[in-house]
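Let us practice reading a record.
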Amino acid sequence: MRREIDDEIDFHLNMRRSEYRKSGMSNRDATVAARSRFGDVKDVRDAVHRVRHIPIMNQAGAMNGMWQDLRFGFRGFVRQPTFTGLAVLTLALGIGANTAIFGLVNSVILNPWPFEDSDRMAWLWSQRAGNMMIPPTKKQLDLWSEAEQLEGMASLTWTEVAVGTEEGAVAVGAGYAAPELFGFLDVLPIIGRAFVVEDSVVGTPNVVMIGEAFWKTRFGARSGVLGETLEINGVSHEVIGVAPGTLDRLFQRSQSDVWLPLRNSNDGAGLSTVVRIRRSASFESATAELVGIDARLDEDAREADWQPHLVPPHRMTSSQLRTGLWVLLGAVGLVLLISCANVANMVLARGVGRQHEMAIRTALGAGRARLARQLITESLMLTLFGAATGITLAYFGLDLLQTFAPSGLTELKYASLSPRVLVAGSVAGITSGVVFGLLPAARGVGVWLAVALRQGTRVGDSKSHTRFRQILVGFEVALAFVLFVSAGLLVRSFIQLNAVDPGFAVDQLVSVRINLPETRYPNATSRSAFFEEVRARVRQLPAVSEATVAMGVPPRMGAMLGAVEIEGRIGAFDAKAGVISSNWVFPEYFATLGIRVISGRVFHRDDDPSLSAVVNQQFAREMWPNETATGKRFRWEGQDEWTTVVGVVGDVKAFGLADEPERVQIYRMFEPEDFFSGGVVLARATGDPQDVLGLIRGQVAAVDAAVPVRDATTVAAMFSDSIARQRFNTLSLAAFALLALVLAITGVYGVITLTVNQRMREIGVRLALGANVADVKFLMLRWGMRPVVIGMIVGLGVSLLVGRVLTSLLYDIVATDLLTYAVALAMMTLVGIAAVYVPARRAAQIDPIDAVRGQ
C-alpha cells in the first residue's frame, strides 16, 4: 500500500516537472516549481500515510464507485461518534417534530374522514346570515335529494342512551344511522351485518350494532357477541354486528358505543346529513343547484331566510384549532430549518479538520466534482440516518401529544402517521437536510493541497468559511427569535384568558348531567318529579350548602335562535344575528351559582314560567339603553304572549372564558308541563367536591338505579376544558420555541468554540504582548454576539409580520405587544451572551507560550 502511494505521488510530481520543462524551465527550476506546487514531497508522503483509509484513485482521478463513497463515509462517521450522534439527533428532532405535527394536520384538517372519495363529501345544512346553521327539515331533504349534482346522501344523528349492565345503567354515546349510511360510505362491519331497510320500520324487532371500542372493552372482542341482547333505555336490542371505529370520525368529537337504526317515523328534526357530489360537479355548483331547488318550496316548509349550504368536513372543526395547527406546523418547519442550519455548521467545522484529506485527494487527481460527490453522499447518509431516527421519534411524539392533549380536544385522538404523513415528513426532512448539506460541500471542494500543507500540522479556516458560519448562526437566531416571540404572545394571551372573571363563583361548584330514558319517563310531569326529588335529596346532604337544577351551566349553556320583539317598538331586534344564550333553571339557580343580582329580583316558586324572565346586563343595555329593564316586556318574533323582565343579573361566560364579551342572555323558569328529558344537577360543596360528586351519584341511584349519570365534574374543570385549545396551542408552541432556542444557542456555542481553537495563536500573541484578560473576553464577546444581534434584528422584523397570523389566537392583547417583544429581546440577549461567554472565558485563560508553540 505504501509503495502504491509513493508511486502515485511520484507520478503526479513528474507530470508537473515535465509541464514546467516544456515551458522552458531548467530541470532544477522545474523540480523546485513542482515541489512548490505540491509542497514538500516528504510532507506529502507523511500526510498520505497518516490517512491510509483514503481510497486509492487511479490516474484519471475517478473513485471506484458509489459503494466506495458509502463505505468511506460510514467509516468516517464511526470514527467521529460525537459528531455523528449530535448531527443525527439534531436532524431527528426537526424531522420528528414536523412529521408528528403534520400527522395532526392531516387527520384533523386535510383528511378528517377516512372514507373513499371523502374529498367529494360534505355536510348539508341550512344556513342564514351570521353563519348560523341548523339541520334541514325532512321536506327539504326529500326535495334536495333530487339534485342532479349530488351522487347520494345519508342521514344520521348522535345522542346518549342508557345501557343496562350488572352494575346498573351507564350512559354511552349512540349513533342513529339511516340504513343506507354504511353502503354510502362503503364501510363494512367488522363482524355481522349492517342495517337494512327493514330495520328502520316501526314495529320490527329492535336491533343494534356495537362500536368497535365498546366491543373490545365491554365484550373482549368476542365474535360470539352476535345474537346477544343489549338493554338500551330499558328496551332489549339484538346485537347484529360490530361497526368499525372509523364511523366515529363523522362526529369528530363524540364516540358512538352503539349504533341504532333511524326509524321511518322520524320527522328529520335534528338530523345531520352527509352528501357526496358527482365528480363532474363542484361544491359551488352543487350549492347553487340546491338553492334553486329550495326556492320551489313553500314558505312554511322552506324556513324563512335559511338556505342550503354544503360544509366540507374539516370546516366543522373549530377555526381556532385549525389555525392553531397550521401555526404549529409552521413552527416545527422553522425548527427543522434551524436543525439543518445547525448541522450545516457542524459539517463546516468538521470540514476544517478535513482540509489535509481534501488536499491529498486533489493531489492524487480528484476533481472538484468528485470531491463534491463524496461530501454530498455523506450529507445524504447523515440526513437518512436523521430521517429514520426522526420517524421513530414522531411515533412517540404523536402518542405523547395525544396522551397529554386536553379532554376537550378529542379530534386529536384520530391522528396517525399514515403513509402519506410518513412520506411527506421524510421528503421534507431529507430535502432540507440535503440542501443544507450542499452548502458545506460547495465551500469545501476549493481547498488546494499547497494551501493546506503550508499551514503545518494544525488546520486553519478561511475568512469566507468563518463568515458563512456566522451567517448560519444569525439565520438560526432569527428563526428562534420568531418562535420565541410567537410563543410569548400566546403565553401572554393565555395568562389574560385565565384571569377572566366567569361572572360567578366556580369554586366548590359541582355539576352532574342526567338524561332520562324516554321509556321510563315519557312525559314532562314524571321528569319534573324526578329532578325535584333529586334536588331535594342533594340539598339535604351535610356536605352541600346549596343545590339546584338547570338545563345547562356555564360554560355549557344553550342558545336560542330568532329575533326578539320589544313591546312598544316597531319591528324585531335581531340580537347577535339571532343567537341568544338561554337557560331554563330552578329558582335556586342564581343563589347556588352566586350570580349577582343587579336590579329587580330572581324567580319565585309562584311565578308564571311562561310570562316571566331574568336577563343579563348586556341584554338590558342593548334592549333598553338608558332605561330600567325591570318591568319591561318582550317576546320572540311570531309569538303572541309577552314576557316580563322580573330582574337583571350580571353577565356570565356562557360558553367558556374565551366567549365573546357582549353576549345577551335570557333565563326562563322550568315549566312542569314542558320539562325536558335532560338536565344538570348543581351543588355547592362545603368540603371536597369529588366526595360530593360521589354522594350525588348515590342520591340519583336511590331515586332510580336505572338512570345513568354522566359528566360528573366540577365547574372549575369545565371552564378549564373550555380553554383546552388555547392551552394546547400555547404549550406546544412554547415547547417548540424552547427547542429552537436550545438548537440556536448550541450553534452559537459551537461556532465560538471553534473560533477560539482556530485563533489560539493570535490570542496567545495578544496576551504575550500585554493584553489583559478583560480585553480578550470583550474581543470574543463582541465577535460572537455580532451574528446574534443581527439575527435578533432580522427576527424582530419577521415577528411583526408573523404576528398578524396569530391575531385570531390571541385574547385581549395585540400582536405587537411591547412587553412580549421586550422580554424576548432581553432573554435572547442574555442567553446569547451566556453561550458566547463560556468559550470567551476559556480563551482568556490560555497560556500564551503554549498557544504560540502550538502553532
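A brief commentary: The chain has a mean pLDDT of 82.
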